Amino acid sequence: MNVLDLIAGARAGKQRDIARLISCIEDGATDAREAVAALAGCTGRAHVIGVTGAPGVGKSTTTSALVTAFRARGNRVAVLAVDPSSPFSGGALLGDRIRMQQHATDEGVFIRSMASRGHLGGLAATTPQVIRVLDSAGFDAVIIETVGVGQSEVEIAATADSSIVLIAPGMGDSIQAAKAGILEIGDIFVVNKADRDGADTTVRELRHMIALGQHDGWAPLVLKTVASTGVGIEELIVAIDEHREWLIGSGQDRMRKLRRIRDEISALVIGETRARLSARAAELDALSACVLDGTMDTYQAAEQLS
């Protein structure tokens, strides 16, 4: 099938065509650019929800519970679960979808695992383009589950409309959040596994730290959940709805989408620059040798390559 046929199938909700179109974009196929161009103007309706947090806080379980809650309301949901790639082999387990098998036969749910492929920030480099595919396919909500490596996962704030930061009691995460700047990326903070000792203390510490920060009109909410049993998930859905209403009413919805597109354009420019630089590897090596020998400084070398 050509790319236009895949797009037609994806917009009709055919899961196989959606998957093929995403693979086309992930692999950087020659018609990936044609696909992105054809999707222009067909997007902008889906609410993009980011779910992030350190390993072990229950991101996949929470994501699955959110899917169940959205489906109970009749919403179509897509999930992008980003898994870390090996720095040695480049491979990835892509195992997060195993925890969501109860949704595998639901035609209103699309689940895709993506390898980060060495991209930092907790997401894959092609995430914005894949979101565009899912948006054009008519999904009401797109949930992005980040890699889960900890303090560096701030890219989700620039990608999602609503960012959910998961924290588990007893893991020292509230203190980690304070020093890592995670407080700045969360729209909603969720203390998951709230049936554990220390949950109330974690909630209290988070609310105190949030109160000390500066916000753009939305004061981040702090909720408690036990995602494995569904406790608190309905309250989380309500909080997501409230945040979306605030985004639209305040004009932040358009501003966030503009920021997302700006970052995507910048990333494409940087990618093209890196590709051109790779094509001049021999020249780069020669200039590096000149710098090492002291006949040239790094600024002069960079000017010759620019």
Written overview of the protein:
- It is a single chain.
- This protein has 306 residues and is α/β, with parallel strands linked by helices.
- The chain has three domains: 1-41, no CATH class; 43-250, Rossmann fold, CATH 3.40.50; 263-305, no CATH class.
- It has helices at residues 3-11, 15-26, 32-39, 59-72, 127-136, 156-159, 173-180, 199-212, 233-250, 252-279, 281-293, 298-305; strands spanning 47-53, 77-83, 109-115, 141-145, 162-167, 188-191, 221-224.
- It has a seven-stranded parallel beta sheet, with helices on both faces.
- Helix 1 crosses helix 2 and helix 7 packs parallel to helix 8.
- It starts with a helix and ends with a helix.
Overall strand count: 7
Strand content: 5-15%
Q: What is the H/E string?
A: HHHEHEEHEHEHEHEHHHH
In CATH, the architecture of the largest domain is: 3-Layer(aba) Sandwich
Task: Identify the overall geometry.
Answer: globular
Largest sheet: 7 strands, parallel
Cα distance, first to last residue? 40 Å
Brief account:
This protein has 306 residues and is α/β, with parallel strands linked by helices.
Which features characterize this protein?
single chain, 306 residues, alpha/beta, Rossmann fold, 48% helix
Topology of this structure?
Elements: H1 3-11, H2 15-26, H3 32-39, E1 47-53, H4 59-72, E2 77-83, E3 109-115, H5 127-136, E4 141-145, H6 156-159, E5 162-167, H7 173-180, E6 188-191, H8 199-212, E7 221-224, H9 233-250, H10 252-279, H11 281-293, H12 298-305
Parallel strand pairs: 1-4, 1-5, 2-3, 2-4, 5-6, 6-7
